[in-house]
Amino acid sequence: MAADLSNTYVVHCADTVCTMGMRQSKIVLRKSHGVYLKNQAQMTVKDQEGVTNVICFGGCHSAENPATVAEAERIAEDVKKDTGESFEKQVKDIFTTEGEDGSKVMACAGECTPEIVSVQWDKEKEDVSVEPGQNALLGEATLTCKYGGIIKIIGAGQPEAT
Fold first, then answer.
1. Which of 15, 59, 76, 101 is within CB 3.0–4.6 Å of 155 for a Cys-Cys bond?
2. Which stretch of 15-19, 38-42, 82-86, 89-93 has the lowest confidence by average pLDDT?
3. Residues 49, 56: contact at Cβ < 8 Å?
4. DSSP 3-state helix, strand, coil percentages of the chain (rounded to 5)?
């Protein structure tokens, strides 16, 4: 049975997913705030920097990500070299499908470099400050990536009670 994340504090190495990513990932702290839960550093709503805190999801399917579009164009070039036929102009149509939320999703993937547009995670424990001005991060929190992905916490990172 999955844990209820709504009132669960998030710690270093919590599990995450991105709607545009290829695999699960982690959120991490490069330096602890000095507060620990079950020997794991507690995270705040401000721990949301791409690459620093939000680790790569293996690849990105977003049609808004230049790396993904470049990968589709590279595939089109390979096909042209192999077959002598060009379909460069149709490459976006061929490799693009519509996601559940209406966003464009590529059938191929480019490099995932999370570029977070959210100022902070959207769920916090308002009466628990880990550092001044930085409230504790709760497990139902999400972030938005520049390329349209929604990043969600799926595991708070706390070791299971024994």
1. 15
2. 89-93
3. no
4. 15, 35, 50
